[in-house]
Amino acid sequence: MAGYVCHILLFFLFAQETAYGTSFGNSLSDTLLDPDFIDSPPMVQPKFTSRSQSIRAVIGDTITLPCEVENLGRNILLWRRGSAVVTAANLIITRDTRFKLLEGYSLQIKNVRPQDAGDYNCQIGDHDNRDLVHTVEILVPPSVRSNPETGHVTVRKGGTATLECKASGNPVPSISWTRKDSIHGSPHLSEGPTLTLENVNRQDSGTYRCYADNGIREPVFVDMQLIVLSPPEITVEKSWVHAGEGYEAQLVCTVHGDANPEVMWYQDSFLLHPNDRRTMDTRGEKHYLTIRNVRSSDFGNYSCVAENSLGRAKKYIEVSGRPGPAQFHSPMYSRYREMYNLTWSIESFPLIEEIRLLYRKLMMNESYQHPGRWHDIILNPPSTRSESFRHIMTYTIKGLDPNSVYETIVQAKNRYGWNEVSDIFQFYTLSTDMPNEDVEQTLGSTAYGNNYRALSGSGSPEGSLVLTALLLSLATTVRRLMGM
Questions:
Q1: Where would you tag: which of 227, 230, 249, 321 has the fewest CB atoms within 10 A of its CB?
Q2: In the chain, what is the greatest distance between 2 CA atoms, to the nearest angstrom?
Q3: How are strands ordered across the β-sheet holding 262-267?
Q4: Where does the UniProt annotation place the signal sequence (predicted)?
Q5: What is the pLDDT of residue 480?
Q6: Are 382 and 391 within 8 A, CB to CB?
Q7: Cα angle at 351 between 350 and 357, to 5 degrees?
Q8: Which of 66-70, 105-109, 334-338, 378-382 has the lowest mean pLDDT?
């Protein structure tokens, strides 16, 4: 390449001498002996009218390096990059087709690459070798890849998981980590190329996202999958399943475990197998045991057992013909001062034989809460059902104290026995400060739902009673003022 440049330069010098009818042998002596040479004015020196620049360009862009010169005369203008000559006069020396000379001697580079970064010299080929230097920096958008490249990391429960990603670009990208599949969105976890999770458990399994950003175009990311190998964990939808003879019962357990757990069903200590009345299905992590045309022999304790190479887990489910627990449907706030209408439902395939209702008053003030004694009431079983197995019952509790808090529980019995006692249900009676005709207008529907509870702030019995008293006092005050 250097020899090629020398030939070019010699060619230009020869052309110049020939044009003036001189030769290399006598051009200098003839010029000095010329009498007009002594009287001729000195030649004007060439100078750059462009200034040195630092140019930043994004990879793929087109850039122009300006080089404008006044009074170039017979001098040759060169573009150099290091020791390599890019152009000489109007000739492109480099074989790279991305380089082009524009009008004058400005140098254009198309589709710039990272290797195009560096100093470019526009040089006047005289005895002073004056240079105009442009510095080019190529900005590269970020790129990122996972380590390992598969993007999968597997670790045992209780171990330490290390996720790593590698980013490149110019400027050097910053790296951050988030949890992609978190139920709380995508929380920020850490900064840097490595994310370390210690003492991992099953909940740590999921997708983690590594972001790389250097301000050039959009941030990029790569996803990594963390798999935590753990012994099986089982949850059940219902630990108690109500069933009736001749009906269908379904038991469901959810098995968590990444080491391909095997799931088995037992009744008491006997391993169950599918038959004409019994099927076992799997849908994702959910496992189903369905018993059709239930018989009395099907009642009892069942267990869902899951086992993998790391351990074993078991959960129990009871199938029973006894009634299900009572579900209350009454509003929390009574429309009356001294009584309360209580409504509940109970699931039972056989007819209910006996109902037991217990209630008691809560003694409370700002500093303590003390329950009173239980009142026990035996009720006649309902004669109708709203559905084939759901019984709806209503009872009015009378003789209550105004402006008080009560709690109640319900239990039911059919031919298979008593059900579990229901959860405690609380209700509230009205204050004596308010006339009957104002009850509906003041409380209205807010005494029957969440709106009234939201107004109380805390939702506690004390807060509810305080708010009730305030509303009633306000209504009484308004009534008196209107009477005035």
A1: 227
A2: 144
A3: 240-242, 311-320, 300-308, 262-267, 270-271
A4: 1-21
A5: 42
A6: yes
A7: 120
A8: 378-382
